[in-house]
Design brief:
Layout: E1 3-10, H1 16-24, H2 28-36, E2 40-46, E3 51-58, H3 61-69, H4 72-81, H5 93-96
Antiparallel strand pairs: 1-3, 2-3
C-alpha cells in the first residue's frame, strides 16, 4: 500500500530566493538517491512567508527516511541546506520533518 506523506518546515525569510535557486538544480546524485530510497511523487511547495510544504509517496516513510539517511549524498545535501531552516538549530531537515496525519483523501 502506498503511504502519502505531507510535512511542513519553515525556511528563513532572508533565504527564500536562495532556497528556490538551490532546488532549481538538485544534484543528479541526490535525485537518484531519493528515487532508489523509495521517495516517489515528491514535491516541495514554498509560500512567500517561508512555510515549506512537502509531499511524497512511498511504501514505508520510516524506511524511506532511513535509506536516505544512509547515503553520503544526503549527508552532504543536508549539511548544505541546514542553515536555511528555522527551528532546527542547524540540524538535518529530514530529521526535523514530522509527517502530518492525513484526515481525508479523494482518489
Amino acid at each position: 500500500m502506498t503511504e502519502r506523506v505531507c510535512f511542513v518546515l519553515q525556511v528563513r525569510a532572508d533565504r527564500l530566493e536562495e532556497y528556490r535557486e538551490r532546488h532549481r538544480d538538485v544534484w543528479p546524485a541526490m535525485r537518484k538517491a531519493l528515487s532508489e530510497s523509495g521517495w516517489r511523487n515528491y514535491s516541495l511547495f514554498l509560500r512567500p512567508d517561508g512555510m515549506l510544504v512537502g509531499y511524497l509517496e512511498c511504501e514505508d516513510f520510516a524506511a524511506a527516511k532511513a535509506a536516505m539517511d544512509a547515503t553520503e549524498v544526503n549527508a552532504r545535501w543536508q549539511a548544505e541546506m541546514a542553515e536555511f531552516f528555522v527551528g532546527l538549530d542547524g540540524g538535518n531537515a529530514d530529521a526535523g520533518m514530522q509527517a502530518i496525519p492525513e484526515v481525508f483523501h479523494l482518489p
